[in-house]
Amino acid sequence: MTKIFKVYAGNYWSDGGALMGVLPYAIWKDKIKTDEIRRQKMDLNLLLIVSDHRRILVDTGLGNRLTEKQREIYQPSEFALPNSLAELGFRDTDITDVIMTHLHFDHAGGIITGFGDHDALTFPNATYWIQKSEWEVAKNPDGLNKAAYQFEQQLQLLEDAGKIELIEGEAEIFPEISCVKGGGHTIGSQYVQIDSPEGFYIYAGDIIPTKFHSSPAITSAYDVCRQDTFKAKKQIYERLKAKNGTLLLDHDTREWEIPISNLRV
To answer: Please, are residues 2 and 192 in contact by the beta-carbon 8 Å criterion?
Structure first.
């Protein structure tokens, strides 16, 4: 039996204009709550999948090793992931696998935890499942992606430990659980599909970060290719409709599970 849980890893504030992409401020200003400098609050809603002997976490949140500049810009909360897992009855050593939707700082920061005098892998027993194209661009970013990845800070220790499985395209990594490359938000963005007797779910990552972004045409300025994001959304919705499934949102502050029947797509 496969069970899923929402795991709250904290929150931070991101630029509202960047999140809305090409959508003019006049259209969304009365629909999206922002602070005095137009930042929008973003929750870090991670997914935990419990299946047989696997404890599979999807993404890791911000972690506790942000720079002072990052803290000033994003005003993050405390790293809530360890406590949230404990509330569900799990420890860091219980996590067998971590699926990374992509490797931006707000998703990959929690791969490593700072313990004062040293850093260590947050989940020492886990194998990390990452799209090969995402890993390669994070390790050797081009000019467009250079500011988006922090390999030495967030990923070097993981590489040194050798706990990585690179996948390409779509792959069933465990029974009922698949990773599907969608692209769009990043070169190697992937979403997670759960097809079990208990239900059909898709955790879309930043391809569809909030309910407002569920509209196929609304994409973030952080997306490297709007057209690919649009195509990935169409594929996600086709799969959800075929299975009468449920969309899971990684950054929405109010909604987590949305049945496809409740979305106008």
So the answer is: no
CATH of the domain at 187: 3.60.15.10
Burial class (CB in 10 A: 0-12, 13-18, 19+), 264: exposed
Rg over CA atoms, the chain? 17
Q: How far apart are CA 59 and CA 109, in angstroms?
A: 9
Say if residues 115 and 145 touch (Cβ distance below 8 Å). Answer: no
Token couple for 13: 């504030």
Question: DSSP 3-state assignment of 155?
Answer: coil
| pTM metric for this prediction | 0.97
Please give the sequence-ordered ranges of beta strands (E in DSSP) within the chain, or none if there are none.
Answer: 2-15, 39-51, 54-58, 97-99, 112-114, 119-121, 127-131, 164-167, 170-174, 177-181, 190-196, 199-203, 246-248, 257-259
Calpha distance 159→12 (Å, rounded): 27
**Edge-first strand listing for the sheet containing 127-131:** 2-15, 39-51, 54-58, 97-99, 127-131, 164-167
Nearest to 189 by CA among 217, 220, 156: 220
Determine the structural domain holding residue 87 and report its residue range.
Answer: 2-262
Q: CB of 66 within 8 A of CB of 23?
A: no
> Total structural domains in the chain?
1
Mean pLDDT, consecutive 10-residue segments, the chain of 265 residues?
96 97 94 95 98 95 95 96 97 98 97 94 98 97 91 93 96 96 98 96 98 96 97 98 98 98 92
Q: What is the pLDDT of residue 265?
A: 87
